[in-house]
UniProtKB/TrEMBL annotation:
SUPFAM superfamilies: FAD-linked reductases, C-terminal domain, FAD/NAD(P)-binding domain. The keyword Nucleus does not apply. It comes from the Bacteria. The keyword Glycoprotein does not apply. Residues 3-344 form the FAD-binding domain. This is 4-hydroxybenzoate 3-monooxygenase. InterPro entries: FAD-bd, FAD/NAD-bd_sf, RIFMO-like.
Amino acid sequence: QRFPVVVVGAGPAGLTIGNILRAAGIDCLVLETETREFIEQRPRAGVIEEWAVRGLEQRGLAENLLARAQRHTQCEFRFGGQRHRLSYTELTGHHHYVYPQPLLVTDLVREYADVRGGAIRFGVQDVQLHDLDTDRPAVSYTDPETGQQQLVQGDFVAGCDGARGVTRAALPPERARIARHDYGIGWLALLAEAPPSSDCVMFGVHPRGFAGHMARSPEVTRYYLECPPGDDPDNWPDERVWAELQHRLAATGAPPLTEGRLIEKRVLDMHNYVVEPMVFGRLFLAGDAAHLTAPIAAKGMNLALHDAFLLGDALVAYVTKGDSTGLGGYSEACLSRVWDYQEFSQWLSEVYHGTSSGDPYRAGTTLARLRRVFASPSAGLAFAESYLGKDPNS
Ligand code: FAD
């Protein structure tokens, strides 16, 4: 078997690249360890930046999203028992879209496999990369139906297999630097079968720990609770979760949260990493395979889409016109946005977690930071711009 491009991983990054290639008539093979049903239901992100939606739209990938996504124009911080709203759309003219990641993945896989006729294998095992520093790289995997090992040759390999994949490990340590940051905190990530309790995202900055509220759909809401890293979700029975959320998100004049059955409860140990460069020979990493941002600022999927647009377009330019400019500048162009978002995540993390750190000095500076966002128009605008993410075309 031979394909110009082999894409490892069918998440937002891999499927977007596959779609861009197929739209240009380029054959590619997407390899995915999970089943189609699984990836179409895996809950994760929801907040998508406006420029990313435009990027999907320009590539014919946003029809359902634009018809169904909610538009968000403001967010609310709750601290000191008070509500503080920031209308970022009023400040910038831009907004966020909220569209659950499983719906986006469902749209992308349908478009790639069923409409654009792209090849995809689900449930593959033992994926391994070979000969990446030659112009004939290859990927081997075990076929789930036959149990046979298959070898696929390509001109390029796109490593889009997320934080737990294998492609990042194929970069020789002497050719790539991995920068890692551990926040030393955990978040209990929750999905509730309950309508949102506010028309916007809410951040509770509380001495007992951060709490977050993010709409996903009219029926489902994502919540977060700061907890010790490595905490066991079993330590968090539903009654404790709701009591803590009600307490940390309480504010004068705010109605209590609407409670419901908790359908996801897992602890995330908050950490980030960045691989530099994101390229080795004919292997190009994209998305979480290359860089992770803890969901503090809701940036990971947006970065995955940014990489995918650049890599998809660069591969098309090379395969159809022999133009290697995009591939040559790929890593640098991605990393500039990656580091920008990493810095904002760090800034925001201190805002979320300084008050509960137990250190009165950090608590004091955190509250000063927050007050400045609301008191100073230029600080409010700077926050809004980072929160929305810069439009790559502006
Ligand atoms: P993934 O989505 O992880 O896709 C990788 C794919 O590769 C998977 O399907 C996986 O099964 C497959 N795979 C793994 N190993 C192999 C292998 N060896 N061979 C083949 N396939 C393999 N981001 C935002 O922008 N906004 C948000 O609001 C947001 N909220 C989040 C909330 C939570 C709780 C979490 C955990 C994350 C959140 N994120 C958010 C981050 C976002 O979900 C990720 O950044 C995004 O999924 C990255 O996309 P990706 O395509 O790079 O990787």
